[in-house]
């Protein structure tokens, strides 16, 4: 077997549903990673909002090392201490009474949507089964979750699609009021539409959704896969809206890079998933839960939450200045350290060009569609690393200009 691999190896042995960059990272530390030529890059992408504590954080390394010498896997025929401790902590820190563990955000949303359907069907004799979602939403890549998501490009070619899903304009209170009825079992929304352009929900919209769900006895589901785990500046973004959901999904930053997802629910909502109605072989894995438990304790520290706010302001100001200097993008929007900079009219469709130019200068960022740059750095990124990343982005934009 050959031990030498290159980017071309990907094209030879991997299914072609991805098109990764030419660079192959080999190690990371904090907010930087290094390629095979030992060149360093400032990580403003965070593994798509996953690496909330950066790379190789000591608390995560210690938790993984200690648990790896105890217990790796059992399945849910038995429970385990790390899973119970993590669930207990999540319920202490949030609205939730119950937790279901899985392996990803898509799985967490799949569980939430299945819960919603069972909740509606068992309470109405099968008449209450409509799920309301919003255009440009993103909820995962399983067949059910791409259908609830509001982006047709992810469902094309996979027909026939599951029914009973209605999409509405985001932040449109009137449209939501018109669509609500007693046939609706759930309304699902992202506090910030991440893949849809880093667009925050308005306070009016979120509060209207809560009131309408109460009126029609529907569940309000918050997809906080991307906004959760302190990325918004609070542990979960719902805490800034003055509204509590019935169900919340979380993943990405929950494990800080170790795969884990969770669905949080109130007591009343959780009862819909009775014994045997849903499951996951790896869900609640001791290794994943031990790491996530260590991550969670770091995320609730006041100094980390203060750093999110400070670095968010620094990033906003830096991006605004770069945008004004070169005219490629406008002032950023978003919450905490999930920010999006919309491209100006003359640069529409060229977000990937700016990302590629940034990579050449040693800074790695994301897109949120072809017209928005997306930034999701580690929540503990230092002021110095933030400044250096912005300087590298400035050079990238200057080169493009």
UniProtKB/TrEMBL annotation:
Keyword Transferase (UniProt): yes
Record keywords: Amino-acid biosynthesis, Aminotransferase, Arginine biosynthesis, Cytoplasm, Pyridoxal phosphate, Transferase
CDD domains registered for this protein in UniProt: OAT_like
GO terms, biological process: L-arginine biosynthetic process
Cofactor binding, note field: Binds 1 pyridoxal phosphate per subunit.
Enzyme Commission number(s): 2.6.1.11
GO cellular component, one term: cytoplasm
Any Pfam family hit: Aminotran_3
InterPro entries xref list: Ac/SucOrn_transaminase_bac (IPR017652), AcOrn/SuccOrn_fam (IPR004636), Aminotrans_3 (IPR005814), Aminotrans_3_PPA_site (IPR049704), Class-III_PLP-dep_AT (IPR050103), PyrdxlP-dep_Trfase (IPR015424), PyrdxlP-dep_Trfase_major (IPR015421), PyrdxlP-dep_Trfase_small (IPR015422)
Reactions the enzyme catalyzes: N(2)-acetyl-L-ornithine + 2-oxoglutarate = N-acetyl-L-glutamate 5-semialdehyde + L-glutamate
Keyword NAD: no
Pathway(s) served: Amino-acid biosynthesis; L-arginine biosynthesis; N(2)-acetyl-L-ornithine from L-glutamate: step 4/4
PANTHER family according to UniProt: AMINOTRANSFERASE CLASS III, SUCCINYLORNITHINE TRANSAMINASE
NCBIfam families reported for this sequence: arg_catab_astC, argD, PRK01278.1, PRK05093.1
Note: May also have succinyldiaminopimelate aminotransferase activity, thus carrying out the corresponding step in lysine biosynthesis.
Xref: HAMAP family: ArgD_aminotrans_3
Protein known as: Acetylornithine aminotransferase
């Amino acid at each position: 077997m050959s031990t030498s691999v290159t980017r071309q190896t990907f094209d030879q042995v991997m299914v072609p549903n991805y098109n990764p960059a030419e660079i192959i990272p080999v190690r990371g530390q904090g907010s930087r990673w290094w390629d095979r030529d030992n060149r360093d890059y400032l990580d403003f992408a965070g593994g798509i909002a996953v690496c909330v504590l950066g790379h190789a954080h000591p608390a995560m390394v210690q938790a993984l090392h200690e648990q790896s010498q105890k217990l790796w896997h059992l399945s849910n025929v038995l429970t385990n201490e790390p899973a119970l401790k993590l669930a207990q902590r999540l319920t202490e820190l949030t609205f939730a009474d119950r937790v279901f563990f899985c392996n990803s955000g898509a799985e967490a949303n799949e569980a939430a949507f299945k819960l919603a359907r069972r909740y509606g069907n068992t309470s109405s004799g099968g008449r209450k089964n409509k799920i309301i979602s919003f255009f440009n939403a993103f909820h995962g890549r399983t067949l059910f979750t791409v259908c609830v998501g509001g982006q047709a490009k992810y469902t094309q070619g996979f027909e026939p699609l599951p029914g009973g899903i209605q999409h509405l304009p985001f932040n449109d209170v009137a449209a939501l009021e018109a669509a609500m009825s007693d046939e609706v079992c759930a309304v699902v929304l992202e506090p910030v539409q991440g893949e849809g352009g880093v667009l925050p929900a308005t306070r009016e919209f979120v509060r209207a959704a809560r009131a309408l769900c109460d009126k029609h006895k529907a569940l309000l589901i918050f997809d906080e896969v991307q906004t959760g785990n302190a990325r918004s500046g609070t542990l979960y973004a719902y805490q800034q809206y003055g509204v509590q959901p019935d169900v919340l999904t979380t993943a990405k930053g929950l494990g800080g890079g170790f795969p884990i997802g969770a669905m949080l629910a109130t007591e009343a909502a959780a009862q819909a998933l009775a014994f045997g109605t849903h499951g996951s072989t790896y869900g609640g894995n001791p290794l994943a839960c031990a790491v996530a438990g260590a991550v969670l304790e770091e995320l609730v520290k006041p100094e980390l939450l203060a750093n999110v706010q400070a670095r968010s302001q620094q990033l906003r100001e830096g991006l605004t200045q770069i945008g004004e200097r070169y005219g490629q993008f406008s002032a950023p929007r978003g919450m905490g350290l999930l920010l999006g900079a919309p491209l100006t009219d003359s640069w529409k469709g060229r977000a990937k060009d700016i990302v590629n130019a940034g990579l050449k200068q040693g800074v790695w960022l994301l897109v949120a569609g072809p017209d928005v740059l997306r930034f999701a750095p580690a929540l503990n990124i230092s002021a110095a690393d933030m400044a250096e990343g912005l300087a590298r982005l400035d050079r990238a934009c200057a080169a493009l200009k």
